[in-house]
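Quick one, C-alpha cells below:
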C-alpha cells in the first residue's frame, strides 16, 4: 500500500496568520493544500472566495486542491484556475450538468474532481467515472470543520473502488472530514488515495509532525 496524498485543509488554519500557516505547509510533507470555498447557499457557512485563494497561491509551493461547496460552480471555474487551482472539485449535488463541468475543468488544464455528500450514493457516478480525476467523499456533512467522522464512509470507499476498477478508470479517492491517525489506516485499506485533514493538523501541538504521521501510516 503506497503512502497517501496528504492535503491539509486551510479552513482550519489561523486566518489572521494565513501566510505563516501556508509557509508551514510548504515546509511539511503535505502534498497538496486543500482550499474549501463555501457560499452560504449550498452549505450553511461562508468561508472565503477568489481573493483569499489568490492570496494563498502567492505563498503556496504545493498544488492547490480547490473544493467548491457552492451553487452553480460552472460560473467560477476559470476564476479559480486563474488564482492557482491545480485541482477543481465541484459537488455532484450542486450542478445540473456534471459532465459538462468536468469537461470545462479539464479544458482549463486542471484535475477534475467531484465531491459527494454523505447521503449521496456512489453509484450515481458510474456514468461519469472515466471523466473524473478524483472523487471527494465527504465523511462529514459539508459546511463546518471539526465534525465527527461518519463510519459509513468505509463502505462507500470500497463501493467506489469497485466502480473505478470495473470501468478501468484512474480516478483517485479523496476523503474529507474527520480524518485522524486512527481512521486513516482503515481508509487506506478500504481504497482511499488522498486524505484531507483540517482540525486534526492545525489544532495539533506540532502540525508538521502530524502531517508526517499521516503521510507514513
Amino acid at each position: 500500500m503506497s503512502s497517501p496524498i496528504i492535503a491539509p485543509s486551510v479552513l482550519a488554519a489561523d486566518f489572521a496568520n494565513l501566510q505563516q500557516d501556508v509557509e508551514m505547509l510548504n515546509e511539511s510533507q503535505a502534498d497538496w493544500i486543500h482550499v474549501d470555498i463555501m457560499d452560504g447557499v449550498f452549505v450553511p457557512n461562508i468561508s472565503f472566495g477568489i481573493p483569499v485563494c489568490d492570496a494563498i497561491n502567492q505563498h503556496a509551493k504545493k498544488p492547490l486542491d480547490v473544493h467548491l461547496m457552492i451553487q452553480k460552480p460552472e460560473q467560477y471555474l476559470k476564476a479559480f484556475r486563474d488564482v492557482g487551482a491545480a485541482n477543481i472539485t465541484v459537488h455532484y449535488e450542486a450542478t445540473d450538468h456534471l459532465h459538462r463541468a468536468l469537461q470545462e475543468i479539464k479544458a482549463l488544464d486542471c484535475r477534475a474532481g467531484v465531491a459527494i455528500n454523505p447521503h449521496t450514493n456512489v453509484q450515481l457516478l458510474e456514468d461519469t467515472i472515466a471523466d473524473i480525476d478524483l472523487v471527494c467523499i465527504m465523511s462529514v456533512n459539508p459546511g463546518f470543520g471539526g465534525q465527527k467522522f461518519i463510519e459509513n464512509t468505509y463502505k462507500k470507499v470500497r463501493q467506489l473502488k469497485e466502480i473505478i476498477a470495473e470501468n478501468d478508470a484512474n480516478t483517485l479517492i479523496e476523503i474529507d472530514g474527520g480524518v485522524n491517525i486512527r481512521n486513516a489506516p482503515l481508509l487506506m485499506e478500504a481504497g482511499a488515495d488522498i486524505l484531507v485533514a483540517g482540525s486534526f493538523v492545525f489544532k495539533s501541538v506540532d502540525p508538521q509532525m502530524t502531517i508526517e504521521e499521516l503521510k507514513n501510516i
